[in-house]
Write a sequence for this structure.
């Protein structure tokens, strides 16, 4: 009995380099659009809460909603421009999942701001940042999986 131990049989299947590049590019583009959305979110939040004296929950929800609108345009025309263009379904899914993300973000903000008493400008922004990061992980997964799908070949 002979045993063939050639390198061909021992080598693990390699992940195609182009697939890795595509995923890295997607994550970077998501970060660019998401980062601009975070800037919009923080700007609107701070103007409403610390500039105009609005209530904290009103400020965080409105800021998230404004950022959601700007993010849709960025994701649709920049990050996922190569994906299927089923606009009506895509818009509905985007805003449904974004609303869930806003609810997650707002709930986390509520816990930090009201539950932990983090009210000052620095503390409220830290709570806002934490809530955005956690909700963004959810958004990334659902946007790439259900909202901006690849065209069926």
């Amino acid at each position: 009995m002979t045993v063939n131990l050639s390198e061909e049989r021992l080598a693990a299947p390699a992940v195609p380099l182009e697939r890795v590049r595509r995923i890295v590019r997607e994550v970077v583009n998501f970060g660019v659009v998401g980062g601009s959305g975070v800037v919009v979110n923080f700007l609107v939040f701070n103007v409403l809460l610390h500039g105009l004296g609005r209530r904290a929950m009103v400020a965080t929800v409105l800021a998230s909603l404004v950022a959601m609108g700007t993010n849709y345009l960025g994701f649709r025309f920049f990050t996922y421009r190569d994906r299927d263009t089923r606009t009506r379904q895509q818009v509905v899914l985007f805003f449904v999942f974004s609303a869930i993300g806003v609810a997650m973000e707002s709930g986390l903000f509520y816990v930090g701001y009201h539950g932990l008493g983090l009210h000052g400008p620095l503390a409220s922004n830290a709570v806002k940042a934490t809530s955005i990061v956690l909700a963004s992980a959810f958004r990334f997964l659902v946007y790439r999986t259900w909202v901006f799908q690849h065209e069926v070949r």
Observations:
- The mean pLDDT is 85.
- Residues 17-51 form the longest helix (35 residues).
- DSSP finds five helices and no strands in the chain.
